[in-house]
Each structure stands twice: as C-alpha cells, then as structure tokens.
Amino acid sequence: MSVVIEARDVEFSFGQTPALRGASLAVDAGEIVAVMGPSGSGKSTLLHCLAGILVPDSGEILFDGTKVHAMAETERSSLRRDRFGFVFQFGQLVPELTAVENVALPLLLSGVHRKQALPRAQAWFMRLGLDGLEQRRSGELSGGQAQRVALARGLVAEPQVLFADEPTGALDSLTGEQVMDLLVGAAREQGTTVILVTHEPRIAAYADREVMVRDGRVNAPDRIAS
Amino acid sequence: MSVPLTLLGLLEREPSHGYDLKRDYDSFFGRGKPLPFGQVYSTLSRLARDGKVVISDVAPGSGPDRKRYIITDVGATEVEQWLTQPVDPEPHLQTVLFAKVVLALMLDRPAAEYLDTQRSAHLHRMRELTEIKRAGSLVDALLADHGLYHLEADLRWIEMTGARLDALRKEVRR
User: Fold this and answer.
1) Which of A37, A125, B8, B164 could form a disulfide with A41, with the two C-beta atoms 3.0–4.6 Å apart?
2) Is beta strand A58-63 parallel, antiparallel or unpaired with respect to A3-14?
3) pLDDT of A73-103, one tens digit each?
C-alpha cells in the first residue's frame, strides 16, 4: 500500500490558541482510518488541514505527493471538488434542491452535464436504500435518510479520499451504524480512502485502524496485525 | 452461559432429540464452541434425574440417540424463573485493569501508556466484532453488539481514568 495523504509535523492555531502542535499522520490508499480524541483535541482541525480547508501555520500536507499546503486557494478548491468527498455531522444538504440534485451537486460543479450527472446520482438511491426519495427536499427526509443522501453526495464523484467528520454524531445508535455500514461498504467497493473523525468507539470500530489526537498531536498505536 | 437452562429452554420450544438440541445450541449459542455430545447427554440425564425432563419415546431421530426429551412442569417453571430474573449487574469493582492502573501509579510507571495499549487492544477486538456483525446474521449482530457495548463501557472508563491520572497519582502515592 502506498501513502495517499499525509500530514507532516503540522501546526495550526486559532488566533493565540494552538489547535495542532506538530501533528503527523500518513494514510494509505484505500485505508479507512478513524481519528479519535476528546473534544478540543484538534481532530477536526487535523481533518480540515488534510482536506485543504485550512492551511497549516507550519508543516506539510501532501496528497499523492503534491504539496497541498503550498497550493493557492483556487487549486485547493479544485482539489476538494474533484478528488475529495465530504460528509459532515449534519448532512448540510442544500434545502432548495431535491435529494437527487443534492447528490448530483459535486458532479455538476465539476462540469458533468446534468443529463449524465442525474442518472449517476440516481444510481446511489437504490444502492443506499433511498429509492423513492429522489424528489424530496432535505426538510422532508429523516435524519438517517438525509445523512445517507449526504453520504451519496460525498461518494458520487468517486473521490480518492472521503473526509467524514462525525458523520453519525446526530443519529441514534442503530441509524448511525446503518450509515457506517453503507459508508464502509461503498468506500471499499470503489477503493476510496476514508478519514473518519469520531469520538464514538463503536463507530471507530468500522475503520481499519484508529489514531488518537491529544493536545494537538497524533498518537498512532502500532498497527495490530489482524 | 448455563448449558442446562439453555437446553431446557430449547426443549420448551418443542420436544427434541439430543442430536437436534446440540445442533440448535451450536447454531444459536455455541459460536465457535460447539457443545460436546457427551455434555449434551450427561446434562439431559441430570435433567431427567431431577424431574425437569422426561423421555417420551424412543423413535428414529437425526442422530444416533433415539430418545426424545420433553420438558416437565418443573423444568418449565425453572426456565420461566431464569428468564424473568435479572442477571447480576456485576459491577466488576476489582478488575485487572483497575489493579494495573493503581499499581502503575504507585510504582511511578507510565500508566497513560498502559491505558493507551489497552484502548488499542479494546478497539482491535471491537473491529473484529464489527466485522462479525457486518458479515453475519441478525443473531450474530445481536451477540456482537453485546460485546461491543461492554467494550465501549470499558473504553469510557479508560478515557475517564486517563483524564484523572494526575489526581489519582497524588492520591495513591500519599
């Protein structure tokens, strides 16, 4: 396995408050890694740095060997749009769009024609047990349904890396596990690397391995052979 | 797992031969630890001696044992009592992990590292159980969940203990 995305000795502060103090993490292609840690430990900040949303104060972010931290905002924006997928705690669907349009959004933004984008988006509805809900708007979906739509949106463009920040945090246990089951199944099927931020051990257990973030540093236990 | 009570419970469902009881036990409760035939028959003999089952007839069955066992009222009452009584919550106040943490602090050893190692081992086991859950039936998931929630409770304790190590160190090293 080769490393697809990596943080090297990353430091980041919000004003005077340090969030990351030399965080390093390397993730292999196709790997599913859970980033755990207490509230305020810096795990979401690490995810945002890896995803090119935040630029570290110092240190490096490498994606496929490219220096993400040195890219201009427009380049990072293209990278996020074309190579990365995102799922957040609250689906953050666009309320004006139907569910299928929400799923198709990353494709449309990448320049895929609507005629091709919508059928590709549509295919995810059957796959994630959402068939029949294509024309609903986010307000007409349950929490679990909305999060599955968000998951489909995160994966529809077949990103190399999916960033999932507490993707089940707003769901009950059973629905959360159903979403994780679908997320892991779909990611493995298309070989997507997943970086999953969670504070819930049962959710982290869906990953191949876990790392702990504490006080802005990453403590990655030795990998236990399975 | 109480083998006699579980076999009695299976017999309350329907009269069965020993071979069928073993098959159902292994399928639902054995989970990689099949019940030896010898234990099935010795348990059934004891249950018969104690009046909890009777042998109804000797008829052709799926296996070599031709005896068909039926639960008695005494046996059914015992199953009923067992099912309705809560299992002891077992607070585990003196666990090995607890002893390790206290000793590590007393001896000025790296308790936080021990907790990290334990967390990693717990999460490794949770991954195995999650895989069983994902690949198996709903009954597999039910059993795996039981283990997962217990491990998760341990992990919460590990987190809480980790956050209190400095204060604990002062207390145990007085």
Assistant:
1) A37
2) antiparallel
3) 999 999 999 999 999 887 689 999 999 999 9
| Cα nearest neighbour of A37 on chain B | B159
Residue of B117, B121, B148 lying closest to A205 (CB–CB): B148
**pLDDT tens-place string over residues B123-136:** 999 999 999 998 98
Strands B67-71 vs B53-58: parallel, antiparallel or unpaired: antiparallel
With beta carbons less than 8 A apart as the criterion, state whether A68 and A49 touch.
Answer: no
Is B163 in CB contact (< 8 Å) with chain A? yes
* Matching CATH number, A3-219, of 1.10.10.10, 3.40.50.300, 3.30.450.20, 1.10.510.10: 3.40.50.300
What pTM value is reported for the model?
A: 0.80
Note whether B124 contacts A224, CB cutoff 8 Å.
yes
The residue type at A70: A
Query: How far, CA to CA in Å, does A37 sit from each of A213, B27, B82?
Result: 5, 39, 41
Full DSSP string of B95-153: -HHHHHHHHHHHTT--HHHHHHHHHHHHHHHHHHHHHHHHHS-HHHHHHHHHHHHHHHH
What ipTM, to 2 d.p.?
Answer: 0.79
